[in-house]
Amino acid sequence: MEPGTIDNLCILYQSPDFIVVNKHWDLRIDSKMWHETLTLQSQLKHRFPELADPDTYYGFRFCHQLDFSTSGALCVALNKAAAGSAYRCFKERLVTKAYLALVRGHVSQSRMTIRYAIGKNTTEGMTHMMCIDGTEGCENPKPCQSELIVLEHGSYSGDPVTKVLLQPLTGRTHQLRVHCSAIGHPIVGDFTYSLRQDSGPYRMMLH
């Protein structure tokens, strides 16, 4: 997958009610910052100007979120009724989310359930981060659960890594990234949750 440009939006599925796109890594879904001209919103407006809804702030109704650094399938509703249906499906947890990731080190267990509660980090200089319960400055931690399944052991640039399937069973901000870091296997390329150590890879390996 190439870096995102205004022209290379990848469409996975399209119907009168929904578009599913393959969001690029290091790309915001939308932005109010004048200097961030390349977003998923701008890609959609460029590709489908006739589908943009002037009654919405960004022109499109995004059914869920993906982090700036995360790539993957993202569903966009094309009308209010479709957006309402999608909202109910996500709220009632009828949608199964699954991600592929490369994590540092060789994970020894073939499968595990990660149950660390996650809260907002209020420590100075870390307020953009989340943290697990018990961390100094961790505010309002909430129960979280993620499933991890080992797919393959290997190496990346000579260092041991594990390819894993991740399923968030709850929906806390940065949940998978925080949980992987908490078990000692941060996601490859996750600069934030590797304490600013993992800066070598060209992207964060979460899709």
Automatic annotation (TrEMBL):
GO MF annotations, alphabetized: pseudouridine synthase activity; RNA binding
Pfam family, any one: PseudoU_synth_2
GO biological process, one term: enzyme-directed rRNA pseudouridine synthesis
Gene3D superfamilies linked to this entry: Pseudouridine synthase
Matching InterPro entries: PsdUridine_synth_cat_dom_sf, PsdUridine_synth_RsuA/RluA, RluA_PseudoU_synthase
Start and end residues of each Pseudouridine synthase RsuA/RluA-like domain: 18-182
Similarity field: Belongs to the pseudouridine synthase RluA family.
Record-given protein name: RUSD1 protein
Gene name of the encoded protein: Rpusd1
